[in-house]
Every structure is written in structure tokens, then in C-alpha cells.
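Q: What does the assembly look like in three dimensions?
Context provided by user:
Components: two
Sequences:
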Amino acid sequence: MPTITLSKKELLREAGVKLSDERLKDRISMLGTDLEGIEGDAINVEIFPNRPDLLSQQGFGRAFAAFIGAKPGLRTYDVKKPTQNVIIEKSVASCRPFTACAVVKKLKMTDERLKEIIQVQEKLHVTFGRNRKRLAIGIYPCEQITFPITFKGMKPADIKFRPLEARGEMTAQQILAEHPKGKEYAHLLAGLDKYACFVDAKGNILSLTPIINSHLTGKITESTTEVFVECSGFDLRVLQECLAMVVAALAEMGGELHGLELQYPDKKIVTPDLRPRKMTVDGNYINKLLGLELKDDEFKKLFAKMGYGYEKNSVLIPAYRTDILHQADLAEDVAIAYGYEHVKETIPNVATPGQEAPLAVFETKLRLLLVGHGLLECKSYNLVGKETQTARMLLKADVVALASSVSEEYDTLRAWILPSLMETLQRNKRHEYPQRLFEIGRVFSKGDTETGVKEKERLAVVLCGEDADYTAIRQILDDLFAKLSITPEYEETAHASFIPGRAARVSVDKEDLAYIGELHPRALENFGLTMPAAAFELDLTTLFGLLKR
Amino acid sequence: MTDDVAKLAQGLSPLERKAAPHLQKSGTLSELAAAAGMQDVEAMRSLQWLEGKGCLTIKTEEQEALVVLERGQKAAKDGLPELHALKALKEQKTLTVAAIAAVLPAYDKQAVGAVVGILKKRDIPFVTIDGKPAFKWVDALKIPESGEQALLGKAAKAGWRLSVGAMTVEERRAATELAKRQGYATIEKRKEKNYTLTPLGEKVKVQATSGGVQRVIEKNTPEILKEELWKRTNFIFRPYNVTINVPRKTGGRAHFVNEAIDYIKRIWLDLGFEEMEGSHVQTAFWDLDSLFVPQDHPAREMQDTFYLKDPAKGKLPAALLKKVKAAHENGGDTGSLGWRYTFSDEEAAKNLLRTHTTVLSAQTLLKIKEGKCRIPGKYFSVSKVYRNEALDWKHLFEFHQVEGIVVDEHADLRHLKGYLREFFGKMGFPDVRIRPAHFPYTEPSAEVDVWDPRKKQWVELGGAGIFRPEVVKTILGKDVPVLAWGLGMERIIKEYYGFEDLRDLYRNDLEQLKTVKAWLR
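A: Here is the predicted structure of the complete assembly.
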């Protein structure tokens, strides 16, 4: 989740209140953002991904002022009729087909404001824009631009301008290969034969989207008073929403919003559109979901605290609130305005029978029997290294492999538990012997299921010490079977992990349930052990199935 | 005799009992060890135990001791060589120096020379006979009492070691002489333990050694029981010092995290919740899409989720897929706008390790629709989930989630708070709060915080909310309130064990498994 830094002074000035840090912290948390801390004037807040409109000092300030009751209700933004155009050429359809644009005038830039504008642009790029993959935002000083502006797809060879933070002109190819932003985002243009650019009436390139602006026409400074704003990407609705967030923040800085006529090959539209949209709400639905009994005037007050307009069963939603998909979303905002802390706690009297999963009950019983044998239970990860599962146990086997893992040691789902216990023995060589361990857990193999992976619960027991032999391990398994009133069949088998002639396959009703044997010295050596060991591994899922029959 | 004395005397350990008859009013450790035939360590232990019982006091002093060496030990038995020479002189009246060597065949020239020196010193007349030097016997002479011989005799009985401090003036002189003689004895300086019996100790000694009236049973044995020896009046079980520590022994044991899991499960079972089970490997469809997580949600990226390489794709339930797809693209029949993008079946089919057990809750909704589960119903699970994160002190890539849902026409936000308070109260966190948050599948959504009184701050322990209609109506077929929570179990229980590092829960260190405290909530 993105973190933004807010000015405490600015926030409280906007809200027109004085609050102690404690109270401020509490209010910020209860507004639905994750407060990281306050240091001096800087408030660091994590913004949940559903509220990109809060990713600016202005957006956050607006919501906060309404929430604490200082400036409640819907804020409206006046957008002047368009006097200028942006032409969208067909050629852009194959690279970045859509844009939504606006002009903002009468801005008074300061150093802080410049930083705020850069912050909102960057934060929206990362979150709402999915690292510019979904959309990118450009802001340009109008002073350097001659309208109309054209948005068009250009051949890389024809693109040449001086990008921001560069000494001189660069070709598109050079930008992608050498410029820091070019290198960072080049993958977004991979495979395209044309790149989308904004070009003004004089033929000056404003930017190569979504990479970098021109130094000449794309750098705003403290002396800038008018800006051209564009959001470009693949979904016009999403671009309009993003543009609304950006220009509303600029309007909060005192800017005057002007529409632009966008001339698409097949249609003409005017952006930005900051008109609120209407959604019907059912007060009963909200009351029932929240366990409240709010009346109409209370709804009006609570919606106002969250920046909405409200008229009987109808809510006016600001254009920058992109997260309202269903009236359930409005119910949440009512709950936030009401205060989660004020909702009473109760447990209803609904009789439902408690029921533990039968296999889990069975495992608990086995656990008791094993503890009775003086065994210590271990608990290992299901993610393991492939080598440990196979080669170190002298086996070759097909495993369920992960596509990507942060740690290479853990790139496989375990097919059996014994190797995990062997690793535990290896790590505990300094402790006293005998070491008598067991583990109950899940194992994974390929099989005919919905995912192609078959999962089973297994039990592994290992004895390690001078007396750890076939008899000793067999006594434990025999005792388990005896307690379950099952008579298993033992059959000598060849299993690479065990000493030849000292390994058996255990079955009941021709159903294989377990392997048992003395560990092969080479396997012991692979785990650095110089103490004999004997083990079995039992399939509990199948065993439990047999017992239920 | 007071009862105390009798009780003490009966309670003597075998070593103390062995030492008792040989205790003097005061004495040294080595004397006791020699007299009682014990090793020094055994004698020391018995003295320390007796001191602990107030029977004696022990002091450590630097002491001189005469230690008799090989020649001295031989002389103690056979007599000092000068005595042999004197005897021969008395019989033969004269004895040349050369003849002395014949009298003492076992001694070398040097030793014989020493004897000559001694005899001279004792003023035995030394004359010249036939030009050879010789000793002459005069009847007035007597074979003198040898203090050295006597001392050797005493030393023989005391294990060849005598405390110089305890000797008479004459004995000390003799000891000095002996020490001068090569190979006979040396005087060692060393730290010696001295003990002095207390008045109580003297009484205990008397009691313990008074004629063996009672036989003390050290270890109870089948023989004692079979022969019913314990019924005889003169037999007594030695009382132990039951307050002393004994060597550690540990038994078999369930993993301590499983003890905690059992407790957590019990809480939900007692509240009437049914346990949910399911696969750890799931399709993205079930884990994410069915829960209305948009397909371009950042959490779905490789670095956050474990996708499977092989098998990489699973099968999807066709009918439900269609409905979920519609919910994402346009809200379907849920009254929602939906996320409004083009849903990819390909993306949905990817296999992954479940990122939350909320996937089990989604599958339970389908089971309710299919009539395999009840409504109203309450369901829980405490099982593993996976996140593609590097292992460090506050992150595990594999951990347990405490999941719960309440599916009930009449459920509301108050009940969600109620269940969470009930659970956390039983987990030892009486102060719980929920605050607004965001999850794609709940609305309202909440973070669950508990108050940490030690750190004096709220600690985030999980997420909760009420499932969105896009989830419930799509899977279940009707919009019923479903309260839901997913809490990080390891973070909840680590406090109890005093762990800062989450990895300590799964170290599989046998010493830790044996000794970590039991779950006692």
C-alpha cells in the first residue's frame, strides 16, 4: 500500500481546527487510513487501494475536513466550457488508445505545491495506474504550448526531443536505452511499432507517454500559472476518474478548471467531467447490515461527513470516488461516519452445532498415542527444497514445483515428511540422544484433482540413536495399528532411502499405507548423521478412509 | 534422645552412614577418608551433607602433612635399616662398615652410607679394627626407641599421611628426620578440610552408630516387599531430603503450537462453529476471483503469491465461472457496477498456494447452496496459508490463519464485533477495536487491533468485514450477510511464549520443544 506524507499544519488549516496529536492519530485511523506516525509537521499515512482520491494533500484534507465535521457535504467544482481542442489520431489506437485532458488556470505555484503535485502524480502512477501500465499522467505548462494538441502514434525513428533531466535531444531509442525513466518503463513499450506522443500545434513533442515529458514543454516551475493535464491509457472511464482526482486536487489549490474538447476519430467529448453521479440507496439495507436504526436526517448527516450529497434514498457521489460499486460501499462509509467504535457488540442467540473436522479429531487421537511413546512432535514448513525431498534421500521423484519463490531453499511442495524430520535431526546433532520425533502434516503430489495436485495428511516417525532399529520403529507402528484394531500386512520392499532387506511396505486390504525401515547409511551421511535411524511414514487420509468403511 | 536426633540419624545417606563411626571430635578430610575407606570425594560429600544438617562445621586450612613414600612404607613393615644394623652389631659386637652392607642386602651403597651416618650420629663407638673402620657394641648401649619407626607405624594406619599439626613435639622431630631421608617421606603443604563435630553431630553420631538396632532401607526393592522386611520393627526406610533438586527428565510432547491451535479450535467449537477443510493448492479462481479480487490487483503479482510451475493450471467450475466473470465485468446480477474490465479465464485457471483461508469460506458458500452445509451456519478453520515473502523475524512465508464466517440472514456488524471480542478475550487480549480498512471482498471492512499493555499501543492482528454482495450473491445465489474474519495466528500466540521472532515458533529445536511452557489459557 502506498504511503503519503502530509503536512499537519496544512491539514489542520484546511479543516480549520486544532487537534492534539493523539486525537489526530485517532481520527486519521478511524477515517479508514493506516496511520504510520507523526514526526514534526509530517504525517505519514498508508492509503488503502480503494481510496486513490486520498493520495494527495488536497484530497486527504478534503475528506478529513468533512469527516471531523468542519466542512461536510459534497464539494462541487466548476468546469469552464472548452475553448481549445485536443485531437486524437487513429494512429494512437495501437499503442495507448485513449486520453482524458484538462486545462487548469490561475494556479499560484510554490515550492510546496510543486512537491504536492509531483507526489499525487507519482502515487497515482504506482497505484491507480499500476506502475503506468494501466495509465500515466502528464502535466505541462501552458505557457510553452500552442493549442491544438495532437495525441498520435509516432514511429520511434521520428521521435526526437530533449526529455526532462537530460542535457540535450535524444531519440526514442536513446531515451529507452539511456534515460533513467526510459530504462525503468521501456518494458511497457516492448513490441510496439508506434509510440504515443503529445505534440503541440508547432510540432513540439510534449511527451513520450507513458515514459517522460519534454524539458521544453513539459516542465512546470514556480512561475507556472496554467497547466495542461492529461491521463492516457486503455480505458476512457478509468482515465476520466483519474483526471477527476488530479484536477480536483489542483482546484483545491485555487486553480480554475477549463474543459477541453477531445476530438476522437469517431466522437467528440469534453473532459474533465466532475459532475457527481447518483446512486439509489436503501436505508433499511444499510441499517440491517450495520445493526443500526438510523433515520433519514441521520443518514444525511453521516453521508455529508463522508463528502456525499444526499436527498431521500439518493446519494450524490463525487467524481473522484471510484470505489463505489454497490450500496454496500455506501453502507461502509455510513459506518465510518457513525464510527466503528460506536457500534455495539453483541453475540446473537443462534444455535448452531459445533463440529470439528473428523480427520482432525483422528489426528489428535494419534498424537496422544505417539506422545505416550515418548515422541516429540515437530512442525515443519510444507515448502521445502527439492534436493532434500529427493537426492538427499537417494530418490528420484516428480515433485510439485513453485513458479517463483523468494527463497530458493523453498521451491517445492513436500511429497513426504520424513526428509523434514531428517533435517531436524541434522540441526539437533548437538542435543542428547536418543532423539525420537514425529510430525503430522500435509503432503503434495500430482494427481487427478481440480488443480492437478493431490493432497494427503501423513504421519512420519523417526527414531535416532544407538538402539534405533527396525524392531524399535516397528513396535510403535504395530502399537498404533493394534489400538486401531487393524491388522496390517508387511512385505519386504526396495526403497532407496532404507537399508536393503530392512524396509517394508505396509498395507491393509491391498491398500498401501506406509513405508517402514532403517535409514540407509548414505542417506544418514547426506544429513550429516553418524547415529543409526529408523522411520516410518503413514498415510493418514487413506487410513482414516479405511476406518470409516 | 530427641526426635530430631533420631530423625537425623535415620535420614543419613549411605555415605554419611559409612562416615559416621569414623568421625572424631575434630579431624581432617583425609583422615576420615582413610579411616572409613572412602574416596576423598565421597568423604567430602558426606561431610558437606552433614554440615548442611548442622552436625558439623567444615573449615579449610593450609596444613602440613607427612606423606610416607615407598621406602618409608617398606620400613614401616620391615623396620628402618639402622635398626637392622644395630641388631646385627648387638649380636656380633663389632661390625665393619663393609659388613653393614652384607646385613642390609636390599639397600644400595648410598643407603648403606646413610645408615653409617645415622649410627655415627647416635654416638655408637666407631673404632678401627684390623685397619678397617668398624662400630663396636658396648653393653651399656641399648637399642634406642626409634621415634621415626613409631611414626611410620602410625602413618601405616592412617593411609600413609599424617597431619603435622596433630603431632607431638617428638613426632614432629621424627617427621622432620624422615623427610630428610631420600625416598622415605616428604612433608607436603596443602589445603586441608578440617571438620569439627557440633554437639548435635555428636549425638547423631552416637545414635547412628549405637549398635545397629535398626536396619535402614536405602532403596525399596521387590525383595523387601516380597519378604515383607518392612514389617519388621527394626527396619526403617531412610527418609530422603525431599527438597533437593533431581536431574531433569522430559517426556514426549505435542508441538507447542499445536497446543495453542487446539485451544483456538476449542473456542470456536464452543461457540457452535463447524470446522472447514480444503486444499492448500487452489486455483486463482477460488482464491481470488470468487472473492471479487480484481485480476490486476497488486497482491496477485508473482512477488506476493506463490504460483505453481507444475502443474501450473487447474480446472474451473464452468457455471460458477460464468457468474464470477459477470460479477467482475459488470456486476452480474448483484446490483453492482463490477470492476468493469475484461476478465481472463486464463488468469483464473492459474494454480497457487492459497493466500488466505477465506478461500475455504467461499467454498463453504457453494456448499451451502448445494445443501451440504447449513444456513444459518457458523464455520471456522485454523490452517495454513502462504505468502511469497522472505523469511525474517516478522514474516513467515507459511503461517496459520484463524478464519471464521457467520452466514445468517440476521447477522450484522454488531455481531462481528461481538465474536471478535469473545475470541480475543479468550486469547488474553481484553481490549479489542476495529477500524475501517479495505479488502476487495468485504464491505464494510475492518482491521482488528488489540491493545498491547506492555508496548502501550494498538497491534494489528487481522482483517474482518461483511462479504460483499458480489461475492455472496454470485456464489450462494442470494445476498445474505456473511460476517468474516481472517486473523494471523502466529502473531496472536507469539506474545504468550514471549517470542519476538516469529521463526522461533518453527525452529524444531529439540531443547526448545522439550522445555517451552505449556499452553495454559
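Follow-up: Chain B touches chain A through 99 residues (CB under 8 Å).
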